[in-house]
Specification:
- By secondary structure, the protein is an alpha+beta fold.
- The chain has 4 domains: about 160 residues, no CATH class; about 100 residues, Immunoglobulin-like, CATH 2.60.40; about 150 residues, Four Helix Bundle (Hemerythrin (Met), subunit A), CATH 1.20.120; about 70 residues, no CATH class.
- Helix content is about 45%, strand content about 20%.
- The strands form 4 sheets. Strands 12, 14, 15, 17, 18 and 19 form a 6-stranded mixed sheet that branches.
- The N and C termini lie far apart (about 125 Å).
- Keywords: Membrane, Transmembrane, Transmembrane helix.
- This is DUF4175 domain-containing protein.
Length: about 700
């Protein structure tokens, strides 16, 4: 006999029905989630990206999302006792709300409770629960079984994704080069974060960065090597392909020059461009002293100020001074450092003071000042940044009786002369240390001095043309290359052509040599001697560079002592033919002089080779876009060093081809850049009149 209260047995059966309904809802949601995961896995296998990381994220998101949606649709408000009672009452009409009354929880008289309990005991709802379970699980089970069955008939890589393939998956069915990933770890001193690139056609990173290229599939049979572009004569370096848990891996360091990483898998190949970015030396600007100065006495303290900037981060900085004493060919030098400090960040200010009395300067002595800064690069051979050189000269006693003139900074030629003395001292110091240094170090320091010598040489050449009526910034790169190979006579002839006058004729009187020529001829000689010194420094022979450096200083001294003319008065009025300027003149032999158009100079061998490679890549497009992208990658490696705009256009075209997009615009732009572009002039030529 039951000892419980009336209605307890009915309530116990209701709790069992509620648990059954909850189990049905959970099973419904779980099966739909599994079916969604199976469908995504099937699509992943058919796409051929079995190990792409984003597929894992998509699988989890689809499974969880579909499961939650199925649970909300089956039981939007959950399965409570009242809802379970209503669900059973709807499917068993014989209960006549007896179960709902007992589930209400309100007090019921014992007689009524016994009657309700008897009604509930007589009802059967197990069949309704069974039918609900079947309806809730049949649909997701069908989808799950269908996805698994389809996975068994797709290539072996799909079976591997679903965990069914095992050893049956072969490397022949996996395109191990279709999608690769690259991880770039910059050097520790740079402070840059690591980068992860998904399926890159090029890897741009700081020189010395650690690059790891990964892919899917086993490492057996894969080949990796690094070489230059198509016309590079550098040897090919073979790399080791390592195995990892989910595929293969290649480790390498970012080289100093552009190169291409070649990955080979049997007949399949893929190229990844390695585009190094060099760590540029700091940019230093000397603000105090603002200009070269002549002092009567070496007394007081000279304030020094400069500003340094670097692309990664500044390290140490200092002010350097060199005192040159003597005259003619007898000079003595001594140097020192002041204001040495450690900087931080990418930009910083430098301040110090220099006691002129402590330098013990004599009349005629010259002090050369510059600011020098280094970045955080650990290699001591890494070039440092230096500012322009400022000079302070102590006046001689014989200069005090000169005519008083308005204060003005010295001429630009004096700065070049004094900079040449500093380079001479650096070269002599290198010659003294040459025997104790290894050959690579001597060559590196010699080429650093050669770069400073080349900048001075260009400033002297610009000064010559500026004196003859041409501005300093008008020289193009092509004209600079021609000027470097000119003799003094040829450079003077070019100056005559630039100004339209014969400089050999005297400007006034019966002088043996014009003042303009008296200044420019020594400058041209100094230019030529600087060129000889630069060539010796470029090949690592600093001892051979010392004699031409000294001859350049003597030539600059002669230019400084030459006679100068300062023109005064109103300039002549310029006569302009307004009708001709307005294109209003009649076409006649007097107003129109047609000139033959000059043909465009022929393309050089390097440009022709690049255009040939570009044409070969375009020819490959209809049949093999991947091979065309590889050809563009090799061409980009060759163009990175001297044609960055062409390399950018080629990289854009290669990216478009690998992504399946239209690369016509990028290829047209690359073709125009490779051919040299359209010729542009600042004014109309003679044929236009």
């Amino acid at each position: 006999m039951s000892t419980g209260r009336p209605g307890d047995a009915a309530r116990a059966r209701l709790r069992g029905a509620r648990l059954g309904l909850r189990a049905i809802v959970v099973a419904h949601a779980v099966l739909w989630g599994a079916a969604a995961a199976a469908v995504v896995a099937l699509a992943r296998a058919m796409a051929g990206d079995a190990r792409a990381a984003w597929w894992d994220v998509l699988t989890v998101a689809a499974s969880v999302g579909v499961a939650l949606l199925a649970m909300l649709r089956a039981a939007p408000r959950g399965v409570s006792t009242e809802r379970a009672a209503l669900w059973v009452e709807a499917r068993v009409p014989t209960l006549r709300y007896a179960l709902v009354t007992l589930a209400d929880g309100a007090p019921v008289p014992d007689a009524a409770a016994r009657a309700l309990d008897a009604t509930v005991r007589a009802a059967r709802w197990s069949d309704a629960l069974r039918r609900a379970a079947v309806r809730a699980t049949v649909a997701p089970l069908v989808v799950l079984v269908a996805a698994v069955a389809l996975a068994r008939v797709v290539p072996a890589r799909a079976v591997t994704v679903l965990g069914r393939g095992g050893p049956a998956a072969t490397t022949a069915s996996i395109d191990r080069l279709r999608r690769v990933r690259a991880t770039v770890v910059p050097p520790a001193y740079s402070g840059l974060p690591s980068q992860r690139l998904d399926d890159p056609s090029a890897v741009e990173a700081l020189v010395g960065s650690a690059v790891v290229v990964e892919g899917d599939g086993p490492a057996a049979g894969l080949l990796a090597s690094v070489a230059g572009g198509e016309d590079s004569s550098s040897t090919r370096a073979t790399l080791v392909v390592e195995s990892r848990d989910e595929g293969w891996r290649v480790r390498l360091g970012m080289p100093e020059r552009p190169a291409a990483l070649r990955l080979g898998d049997g007949a399949r190949t893929r190229f990844v461009v390695l585009a190094p970015r060099a760590d540029a030396p700091p940019q230093v600007t000397l603000s105090l002293p603002a200009r070269d100065t002549v002092l009567r006495e070496a007394v007081g303290t000279l304030p020094l100020a400069a500003r340094a900037e670097d692309d990664l981060g500044l390290g140490a900085a200092q002010f350097e001074w060199i005192v040159s004493s003597g005259e003619g060919e007898s000079f003595k030098f001594r140097n020192g450092v002041v204001g040495r400090t450690s900087l931080g960040g990418r930009a910083a200010a430098m301040r110090a003071s220099l006691s002129l009395a402590a330098l013990e300067l004599k009349p005629g002595d010259i002090v050369h000042l510059r600011a020098v800064a280094r970045d955080r690069h650990p290699d001591p051979r890494h070039p440092s940044g230096a500012s322009e050189t400022r000079t302070l000269r102590i006046a001689r006693a014989g200069e005090y009786d000169s005519v008083a003139v308005d204060a003005a900074p010295p001429m630009t030629g004096d700065t070049s002369q004094l900079g040449q003395r500093m380079l001479l001292q650096l070269t002599e110091a290198l010659v003294k240390r040459q025997r104790a240094l290894p050959r690579p170090t001597v060559l590196a320091e010699s080429r650093t001095i050669a770069q400073d010598q080349a900048r001075l040489r260009k400033r002297v050449g610009d000064l010559v043309f500026q004196r003859l009526g041409e501005s300093e910034g008008e020289e193009t790169q092509g004209e600079s290359g021609k000027r470097a190979s000119m003799t003094p006579e040829e450079l003077l002839a070019a100056a005559n052509a630039a100004t339209g006058q014969d400089l050999a004729k005297p400007l006034e009187g019966e002088e043996e040599e014009t003042p303009v020529l008296a200044v420019n001829r020594p400058l041209l000689e100094a230019y030529n001697h600087m060129w000889d010194a630069g060539r010796a420094l470029e090949i690592g022979e600093p001892a051979r560079a010392i004699p031409p450096m000294r001859r350049a200083i003597l030539a600059l001294e002669r230019a400084r002592a030459a006679e100068r003319i300062y023109l005064r008065g109103r300039p002549p009025a310029a006569v302009v033919d307004l009708s001709k300027v307005r294109l209003a003149a009649r076409l006649s032999p007097d107003t129109m002089h047609l000139a033959a158009r000059t043909a465009r100079p022929p393309l050089d061998a390097r440009t022709r080779a690049r255009l040939t490679s570009l044409g070969r890549a375009v020819a490959l497009l209809p049949g093999d876009a991947s091979a065309a992208a590889d050809t563009l990658a090799l061409l980009r490696v060759d163009a990175l060093a001297d044609a960055p705009t062409l390399a950018a256009a080629l990289g854009e075209a290669a990216e478009a081809l690998r992504a399946g997009r239209d690369a016509t615009a990028a290829l047209v732009r690359a073709r125009r850049i490779a051919a040299g572009g359209a010729a542009r002039v600042d004014s109309l030529g003679g044929w236009a009149w």
